[in-house]
Amino acid sequence: MTNQLFIVIKDTFLSQFKSRGYWMLVISPLIFAALAGAVIFGITKMQGNTTPNIAVVGNQEVRSILVQSEKELDIHVSNITNEKKANTALQNEKLDGVLTVNKNEATITTQPKSEQIPKEKITAILGNLSRSQKATQYGLTAEQTADLVQPYNLKSVVKQAKQSTNSGNTESANQLIASAIGIITIIIVMWYTSMIANAIANEKSSRIMEILLAATSARVQYFGKIIGIFALVTTHLLIYVIAGFTTFNFFKENSFVKGLASNLNGVTLSFIIYAVIFVLVSVALYLVLTSMIASLINDNAQVQQAIQPISMIAMVGYVFSFIMTQMPNNLLIRILSYIPFASQSMMPIRLVTHTEGWPAAISALLIAVITLFLLLWFGQGIYARNVLSYSDEPIMKQLAARLRHK
Amino acid sequence: MIQLTNLNKTFGQNIAVSNMNMTLTEGKVMGLIGQNGAGKTTTFRMLLNFIKPTSGTITWNDQQITQNDKQRIGFLPEERGLYQKRTVEEQILYFAELHGMKRSDARVALKDWMKRLDVVGKVSDKVQSLSKGNAQKVQMIASLIFEPSLLILDEPFSGLDPVNTSLMMDEIIRLRDNGAMIIFSSHDMNNVTKISDDLTMLKRGKIVLQGPVQNIREQFGRTRVYVESSTSSAALKAIDGVASVTPHGVGYDLILSEEEAGHRVFDLVTKNGYIPAFSQQPPTLDDIFRQEVAIHD
C-alpha cells in the first residue's frame, strides 16, 4: 500500500508538473514581476538625472555647509554665487533653484520645470545654523549649543507581559511579510484547490476512478492526491525562493533592491519560519476540504460550484485581517484568529503587531495542525463513500446529507 | 477460487442482489447475463470491494479479499474512461504500476500488446488523438497488461466491431488458458455462448439459471430443428409436437413442443431417402434468455 501511495503521489505530482498549465501558473507571476520591474526601471531611466541643481547666494557659510551635505540632501550646489547670474541661469532652466540667504530669512526660487528640492531638509539645516549662531551671540558654550540643537528623541516601545521590544526596527518588515501571507495564501488556495478539484472531477466523471479503485483503495487515492498536490505547492514556493534569491544576488547593487533589502533587514528568522509553516498548514487544510467536496462532483462542469464556498472561506480571514487593524481587540476577531481556515491571515499579523505573543501564535498554529489531522481522518470516509456515487443533488446538499449520516 | 456465498445487497428498500451463490474457478470463464438492473454491475462492485455486501461473504481461496489481492484484479468498466490528455504509455504504465508491475516490464509488454491488438498509433500518442476503436483497445490493454488472476469485464464487447470483438475474445481465451478466473457480462448471447464455460443468469437480483453453458441448454431439451427437404411447410406443421415452422434460407426452422417430436419429423423428411441437412439442437441462449425473462415477469 505504501508503494501504491507513492505511485499515486508521483503520478499526481508529475502529471501536473509536466503540464503547460502548471508552468504558466509558476511563470506568470514572475513575468508580471519582471515586467513591473522593467517598467519601474524604464521610468527611472527616462527621468534621467533628478538631482536638483541649486545656486546658493548671499551667505558663503551656508553655501559651504550645503556643499558638504550634498550627498545627504541629494542636491548639487552650483558654482554660481552671483545673484544676477543665478537668476539668469534659473530663467534659462540651467538651475532648478536659487537659495537666497539673508540675515534672518532665506528665499528659494524655482522655475516650473524644476526637479524636486528637499525644502524641509534645507530648512532644518538653516534652522540649526541660525540657532547655533544665535547661541554664540548669547555667549553659550559649544556643548550648551550642541545640547540646545539636539532634537527630542521619541522612542517607540511596545510593552509585553515578559519583554519589551523596540518596535521600530522589525515591525515594518514583519508587517510587510504578514500582509503578504494573507495574499499568498489566498492566491495559492485559489490555484491549487481548483487543480485538485479538477483532477478528482476528471477521474470521477470519466470513470477512470473505477479503474484506479480496482487496483487501489479510496484511501490511497485520497492521500495520494492531497500529498501530490501539496508537493506541487511546496515546489512552486521553492521555485520562487530560488528565483528571488538568484535575482537578489544578481541585482544586489541596484538601489531599489538595496532599499528593499534594508527594509527587510528587520525580519526575524523565527517569524519567517512560523509564517511559512502556517501558510503550508493552511493550504493543506484547504486541499483536504476541497478533496472532500470534489468527491461529490459528477463532472467537470461542477468544479466551480464546488470550489466557490472554499474561496469564500479563504476570503473571510483575508477581509477580517483588514478590519483587525482598526479593532484588534474585538472579541470576534480575537476568536477568528484561532479558527483554522481564517487564522493564517490574522494570527501572523497579530504576532508582528504585538497584539498577541508567541504562546498565542503557537496555539493558533497547533489548533490548525490538529484540525488538519482530524479533517484528513474524517475526510477519507467522506471521500471513499462518495467518489464512486453519482447524484444529481446540489453538491452542498449532498455534503450536508453525508455529514448527517457519518 | 473465488466463492460468493449467500450474497445480498440492498439499497434502501431496493434489493439489488438476493442470496447469490457463485464460484469462479481458475481457467474458467463465467458469463453473467441478465436484463438491465438485474444486479450484474452491483455484483462486480461487490467483487471489487467498491461496495460492501449487506450480508454474505466473498472469499478468494477461502480468505477475505485483501488490498494486495486487488492488485491481481483486472477490471474493464462498462463506461470506458482514460486520461484524454496523457499519452498511451503514460497511463498504461501508471495503471500497470498500480497493479504491481515493474515500469520497465510494462513498457516492454505495452509494445507487444499494441501489436497484438493491432492498435493504430504510437505509444507516445495522446489518447484524445486516437480513434474510438483504438482508445477502446488501449482501455483493454490497461485491464489486461499485468496478466490478472481475476478479470472482471463489464460489457467488454459493447461498441466493438466484429474484428475487434474477435481480437478481444482471443485474449480472454488466452488468459483463461493461462489459468485466470474470468467473469464478464454481456447482452450479446452469441458472444456469451462462444467464450463462457459457465453461465449465471440474474433476474431482479436473483439467480434464475446457473451452470455450464451446454448443460443449461441441454436441460431445455433439443427442441430446435433445422431441416432441408422437399417436404412442404404444411406437412411439417401437421406433425404432432411441432409448434412452429419458419422458412430459413433453403430450409425450415422448426420449434418443437417436445424433444421426441424430432423423431417424427426425421421419419417424415427422410421417407424418400437422402436429405442434405437435418439438425436437432437445444435452444440458443438468446431463446433461453427471452423465455426466462418472460417466465419470471
UniProtKB/TrEMBL annotation, chain A:
<dbReference type="Pfam" id="PF12698">
    <property type="entry name" value="ABC2_membrane_3"/>
</dbReference>
<dbReference type="GO" id="GO:0005886">
    <property type="term" value="C:plasma membrane"/>
</dbReference>
<dbReference type="GO" id="GO:0140359">
    <property type="term" value="F:ABC-type transporter activity"/>
</dbReference>
<keyword id="KW-1003">Cell membrane</keyword>
<dbReference type="InterPro" id="IPR051449">
    <property type="entry name" value="ABC-2_transporter_component"/>
</dbReference>
<feature type="transmembrane region" description="Helical">
    <location>
        <begin position="21"/>
        <end position="43"/>
    </location>
</feature>
<protein>
    <submittedName>
        <fullName>ABC transporter permease</fullName>
    </submittedName>
</protein>
<keyword id="KW-0812">Transmembrane</keyword>
<feature type="transmembrane region" description="Helical">
    <location>
        <begin position="176"/>
        <end position="201"/>
    </location>
</feature>
<feature type="domain" description="ABC-2 type transporter transmembrane">
    <location>
        <begin position="22"/>
        <end position="377"/>
    </location>
</feature>
<dbReference type="InterPro" id="IPR013525">
    <property type="entry name" value="ABC2_TM"/>
</dbReference>
<feature type="transmembrane region" description="Helical">
    <location>
        <begin position="306"/>
        <end position="324"/>
    </location>
</feature>
<keyword id="KW-0472">Membrane</keyword>
<feature type="transmembrane region" description="Helical">
    <location>
        <begin position="357"/>
        <end position="378"/>
    </location>
</feature>
<keyword id="KW-1133">Transmembrane helix</keyword>
<feature type="transmembrane region" description="Helical">
    <location>
        <begin position="222"/>
        <end position="251"/>
    </location>
</feature>
<feature type="transmembrane region" description="Helical">
    <location>
        <begin position="271"/>
        <end position="294"/>
    </location>
</feature>
Automatic annotation (TrEMBL), chain B:
<dbReference type="InterPro" id="IPR017871">
    <property type="entry name" value="ABC_transporter-like_CS"/>
</dbReference>
<dbReference type="InterPro" id="IPR027417">
    <property type="entry name" value="P-loop_NTPase"/>
</dbReference>
<dbReference type="Pfam" id="PF13732">
    <property type="entry name" value="DrrA1-3_C"/>
</dbReference>
<dbReference type="GO" id="GO:0016887">
    <property type="term" value="F:ATP hydrolysis activity"/>
</dbReference>
<dbReference type="GO" id="GO:0005524">
    <property type="term" value="F:ATP binding"/>
</dbReference>
<dbReference type="InterPro" id="IPR051782">
    <property type="entry name" value="ABC_Transporter_VariousFunc"/>
</dbReference>
<protein>
    <submittedName>
        <fullName>ATP-binding cassette domain-containing protein</fullName>
    </submittedName>
</protein>
<dbReference type="InterPro" id="IPR003439">
    <property type="entry name" value="ABC_transporter-like_ATP-bd"/>
</dbReference>
<dbReference type="InterPro" id="IPR003593">
    <property type="entry name" value="AAA+_ATPase"/>
</dbReference>
<dbReference type="InterPro" id="IPR025302">
    <property type="entry name" value="DrrA1/2-like_C"/>
</dbReference>
<dbReference type="Pfam" id="PF00005">
    <property type="entry name" value="ABC_tran"/>
</dbReference>
<keyword id="KW-0813">Transport</keyword>
<keyword id="KW-0547">Nucleotide-binding</keyword>
<keyword id="KW-0067">ATP-binding</keyword>
